[in-house]
Design goal:
By secondary structure, the protein is an alpha+beta fold. The chain has 2 domains: 154 residues, OB fold (Dihydrolipoamide Acetyltransferase, E2P), CATH 2.40.50; 95 residues, OB fold (Dihydrolipoamide Acetyltransferase, E2P) (Beta Barrel), CATH 2.40.50. It is built from 5 helices and 15 strands. The strands form 3 sheets. Strands 8, 9, 10, 11, 12, 13, 14 and 15 form an 8-stranded mixed sheet that branches. Strand 2 and strand 3 form a beta hairpin. The protein is globular, with a radius of gyration of 19 Å.
């Protein structure tokens, strides 16, 4: 008799591992130990550890974790199961992010198994997480985006589910995504610079259409990466971030990894 196999189990045991672990000298060394608990698809805890470890650089589908009224995102259980499948009870070494703790006291880190399996890469490779970076924790972002791109092309995991579909910048329904993390793709119709912000507009009416904004304090980071924000006019790009309502829907980009072509 054939037994039912979950999506997470199928992915873990059928897809080859193709991504090398990052060199140990890329980030500062953290604790080593055995993963004793998997909390969700991007959070673990080591045996005798003093804090949860948040896998930086990615965002797995979210579970309620005691939050009242919070509905689990699609494939959240599968993401947790996949992480358990290749991390639970495994010896790992921890590499700390530039900012080593978040406001919840969690350790922010990349996690690598003793056999050099890079945990972040595995979750992205399986299509069970999206790249999710911050201005102060951008290390290895380019490598992770490349892995995500491969999973997206193969429509693995979340990339085959409409909940996580890349949004069209001109979609009228984009306003309904207010307060959610999205990847939005479209052509920049206009790029404008004021004293305080750069605006990338994706429609004829900035008061209702999708916009990407970059505050003046963040311009230097884009310039250092060789990015001329105004040169995006007429180009088709993707922006990732949280949708907020500023006239129409907007993503506020704080660092270069949020915008790609």
């Amino acid at each position: 008799m054939l037994k039912f196999i979950t999506l997470a189990a199928f992915l873990v045991f059928t897809l080859p591992c193709a991504w090398a672990a990052p060199p140990d000298d890329v980030l500062a060394a953290g604790p080593s130990g055995v993963v004793a608990t998997v909390i969700d698809g991007d959070t673990v805890r080591l045996k005798d550890g003093d804090a949860d470890i948040r896998l930086i650089g990615l965002q797995a589908p979210k579970l309620p974790l005691g939050r009242k009224g919070f509905k689990a995102w699609p494939l959240a259980d599968e993401a947790k199961a996949a992480l358990k499948g290749f991390a639970l009870n495994k010896d790992v070494r921890v590499r700390l992010g530039t900012s080593a703790r978040d406001r919840h006291g969690r350790m922010l880190a990349h996690v690598v198994r003793a056999d050099d399996v890079w945990v972040q890469a595995e979750m992205l490779r399986l299509g069970l997480a999206r790249v999710y970076t911050f201005p102060d924790n951008r290390a290895l972002a380019a490598e992770m985006l490349a892995i995500e791109t491969e999973a997206r092309r193969a429509k693995r995991g979340i990339w085959g589910h409409p909940f996580y579909a890349v949004r069209d910048a001109l979609s009228p329904g984009l306003a309904d995504d207010n307060g959610t993390f999205q990847i939005v793709r479209g052509t920049v119709t206009d790029a404008a610079k004021t004293k305080e912000r750069v605006y990338l507009n994706f429609g004829a009416d900035y008061r209702s259409d999708f916009t990407v904004s970059v505050e003046k304090r963040d311009w230097r980071m884009f310039e250092a990466a060789g990015i001329d924000l105004l040169a995006f006019k007429g180009k088709t790009i993707e922006a990732r971030g949280w949708i907020v309502k500023r006239n129409g829907p907007m993503i506020e980009a704080t660092h270069p990894e949020q915008i790609s072509r």
